[in-house]
Amino acid sequence: MRRLRPLLPVAILLLVALVGWMYYVQREIEQHQSPARPKPLPPDTVATAGPWEWVQENEQGVVVRVRAGELREVKEPPRLYLAKVEVEIHRKDQMTLDRFRTERAEYDPATGILFADGDVQIATGEPAKPGAPAGRRVQIQTSGLTFESRTGRATTDRPSSFVFEQGEGRSVGAWYDPNTRELDMRSDVAVIWRGKDGRSEPMQIEAGEAMYKELDSVILLWPWCRLKRGALTVEGARAGVYLKESAIQRIEAFEAKGLHRPAKGRPAEFQAQALFVHLTAGGEVEKIEGTGKTRLVSEDSGVRTAVSAERTEMQFDAAGGEARLRSVWTVGQCVVESRPVGPNSTRETRILRSERIEMRMRPDGREIESAETQAPGVIEFLPNAPSQRSRRMEAEHIRAVYGSRNEIEVLEARTVATRTDYPKPPKGPPTPPMRTWSRELRAEFDPAQSELLRVYQSGDFRFEQGERKGWSEKALLDSSKNWITLEGRARTIDAGGSLAADRIFLDEAAGDVTATGNVAATRMPEASKKPTAVLSEAEPYQVRAERMYAPGARRLIRYEGTVVLWQGANRIEADWVEIDRDKRTLLAKGNVVSRFLEEPPAGRKGPGVLTVVRATLLEYRDEDRTAVYSGGAELERGALKVTAQTVRALFLLKDGKTELDKVYADGRARIVETKAGRTRLGTGEHAEYYAAEGRAVLYGGAPQFEDSLRGATRGTRITWYQEKDGLLVEGGAQEPAASRLRR
After folding, report:
1. d(C-alpha 714, C-alpha 701), whole Å
2. Which H helix or E strand runs over 7?
3. Most buried of 174, 381, 556, 628, CB within 10 angstroms?
4. pLDDT digits (tens, 9 = 90+) for 152-161
5. Residues with Cβ within 8 Å of residue 410, at least 6 apart in sequence
6. Could you tell me if 112 and 148 are in contact, meaning their C-beta atoms sit under 8 angstroms apart?
7. Looking at domain 202-331, what is its CATH homologous superfamily?
8. Which H or E run includes 674?
9. CATH class for domain 541-741?
10. Cα angle 117-122-125, degrees, rounded to a multiple of 5
11. pTM value?
C-alpha cells in the first residue's frame, strides 16, 4: 500500500492529462463536426438571406411575385437589397404576365417600391403557365427603373429601348402600366413600326413624347411628332396612330403638315388643323382627310397648284404597290390656284373658288384630269404679261377638263356670267370690259400655249361692252381671232343704233360687222349732221335686209337681199344698198325704189308731195344733195312721171326741211302727166324738171310734147309750164317748131 502511495500523484496527473487530452480531442471532433459560425453582420443590417421570394396574391391568384438570388435587410430606413432580381406581374386573366429582370435592386417594404439602378430587361405578354397563350410581346431595355409592386407600374427617366412584335423604338424616360397595358415614352421618342407581317415598308415615328395604349390599339404622340413611311411624311403638334390587328390603320395629326412624294405620282404638300391619314392593310396611303383651314400644294410641269378649303379629302389608288393621287375633294371656302413657275413663264394664273370642288387625276397620278364645282363657283384667269386679258367667270356649276402639263383644255359651266378686262392700250382710251351671260358655256383652250381659243355660250346669251349690248340664243367668241358670232334671234345695240338678225358676226380686231338672215337695223342720227335728201343724218333710219356688212369702223355699211331702208316717210328698196357715212354717200343696186315725201310748206294743209323713183342703180351724194338713178329710171311725183336711162334728182334744204329742187333726165327722156282725164307727154333725149316752178324742159333728139286735149308740138327745145298750162317751143334754122292742134 505504502509502495503505491508515491504513484498516486503520478496517476492523478496522468488521469488529469488523459481527461484533458480526451476533452481536447472531443472538442476538436465537435468543432469539426459542428457548422461554422456566421460572420458578423454589418451594423445597419438586420438579416441576410440566400434565395428569396415574395408573393402578393388576391382571390384570382398571384398578382406580383418577386424573386432574388440574395437578400439583405436594412433596419434604418427599412430596405431590402436584392441581387439577381426577377419580378413577375400577373395579368387579371392569369394567362399572361410581364417579367422584369435586373442584377441588383432596392425594395422599400413600406411603399412597395422596387428600384433598379442598373440595366433592366422587361418582357411583356409571356405565358403565365404551361400551355397558356402568349399575349402581345414587348421587350424593354432600360436602367434606373422604379417598380411599384402595389400597382405593377414601372418608371424610368433614363434612355430606354423597345422591341415590339411589329417594330422597335427608343426614348429617354418611360413608364409602363401592366394593368392598363400602357407604355409611355417620355422624350426623344423614335419608333419603327414594321406592320403585321413585317414585309411592308415600315413607319418611322418620332415625337417629343409617345404613349402606346395596347388595349386601345393606339399610339399617342405629343407635343410634336413626325411620321414617315416611304413617300409619305406627316408632322404635327400631336397625333394618334391607330392600329388594327397590329397594322397601322390610320393616323390622326393636329396642327399638321405633310408631304407625299411618290416615285412616279404627283408630289403634294398639305397642311391642316386636323389631318387624318387612312392606310390599306398593306400600309399604302388610301385616303388623307384634312379639316380646319386645309392647304394642299403640288408642283408639276411648270405649274404650282395650291388648294385651300375648310375640309380637304385626297383619295389614292394603291394598285401596283405605290399610292398615287386619284382625286381631291374640298368643302368650305375652297380655292384652287394654279400659278406658273419659272423665271420666263408668262402663262395666266388660274383661280377657282367654290364651296365644294372635286379634282380628279389621270391614272398616272401626276396630272389633273378634271376639276369640278359641286356648288356655285368663280374662276379667274389673271394675266402675267402686259398683253394678256383678265377674265372672270361666275357660274352655278363649273367643270374644267385638263390636257397635258396640267393646262385647261375645256371649261364648261352652267348659268354663267363672265367679265373680260383688256390691257390698257399705249394710246387712246381704254377698252371697256366685256360682260356676258348665258345658261351654258363651253370654252376651249390651246394646251400648248395655255391660251383661250374659243368660247361657246347658249341659252339666253347676252353681252355688254361699254354702250354696246347684245342678245342671242347662242354665241361663239373666238378669242384667238377676236371674233364674236351671235346666232338665233341675235341683236346688238350701241350708241349708233341697233342690229337684229338670225346671225351676227363681229370682228372685234378689224371692227367688221356681218349680219345674215332677217336683218333689221336702226341707225341713230349724228348730232352734228343736218337733214339731207335721201338719207338724213339728223334722224334715225331703219333697214330690213337679208344680209348686212359693215367693215372697219362701221362707217361704211352694206345691205344685201330685198333691202328696205326707211326714215320717217322716206323709203328706199333695192337688192343691194351701201351707205358710206364718212363720204356721206348712198349706193343702191337692183330693183331700186325710192320714196321721198316732202312736207307741205308752213301754213299749208295736206299730206305733202310724194316722189317715187324706180331704177336699177341709185347713187346719192350728200355733198351736193344729188341722187342719180340709172339703168332705166322712172320718177313719179304726184300726177307727174319722168322716165329716162338716167335720172338725176337734186334736193335743197329750205327752212330746215328737204325739198326736191330739180330733176335731170338723160337718155330717151319722157315726162308724162295724167290729170283729170287729160294726158300730157313730153319726150326728148334730155329733160329737166324744176319742182318749185312746175317747169319742164325737153331738148335733144327731136323733143316733142303731146297734149291729149290740144295736140302735139315739136321743136329743138320745149319748155312746159305745168301750173300755167303753157308751152314755150323753140326751133332751129334746120328744124322749125311745128304744132298739130287737135279740135
Report:
1. 11
2. helix 7-33
3. 174
4. 788 999 999 9
5. 400, 401, 442, 443, 444, 445
6. yes
7. Lipopolysaccharide (LPS) transport protein A like domain (2.60.450.10)
8. strand 657-675
9. mainly beta
10. 160
11. 0.75
